[in-house]
Amino acid sequence: MKPFDPTKPVQYRNGEKARIRFTDGNATYSGTKHPIVSEGEDGVLRTHQTNGKWGIWDDKDNYDLINIPEKRKLEMWVNVYGGKDFCHPSVGHYSKTKADESASNGRIACLHIVREYEEGEGL
Question: Residue 104: CB partners within 8 Å, gap ≥ 6?
Fold first, then answer.
């Protein structure tokens, strides 16, 4: 699991939306620094350790901050050919122009493939 990153999209462990207000606070509880301050949908401000932990105990808490998986977009162009070598899926191109430049005789189509995914999806 990747370490918590307050610069990436976040939410509370319970699924509630959260917003990082600042990361240079000086709150300390039982000797543990809580420099991150978040604001929930209800307007309540909460302090967190650098790892996103809300409390001072090791248990997971509903108000721990966690990173939300970021959506990414895969976009490519694939040349399709007639006959037994109908397509070369391992040869995707980042633009239609590049697909056109690499096309050989017999191309019957050029597919534009767009797919949104989250990091780690499908693994």
Answer: 79, 81
48-84 pLDDT per residue, tens: 999 999 988 888 999 999 999 888 898 999 988 877 6
**CB of 63 within 8 A of CB of 15?**
no
C-alpha 66/C-alpha 59 separation (Å) is: 14
- Provide the total of helices (H) and of strands (E) in the chain, helices listed first: 1, 9
Query: pLDDT exceeding 90 applies to what percent of the chain?
Result: 59
**Which of 84, 73, 85 lies closest to 112, judged by CA?**
73
d(Cα 29, Cα 72) in Å, to the nearest integer? 38
Q: For residues 117 and 18, give the distance between their C-alpha atoms in angstroms, rounded to a whole number.
A: 22
Q: How far is it, in rounded angstroms, from Cα 48 to Cα 12? A: 11
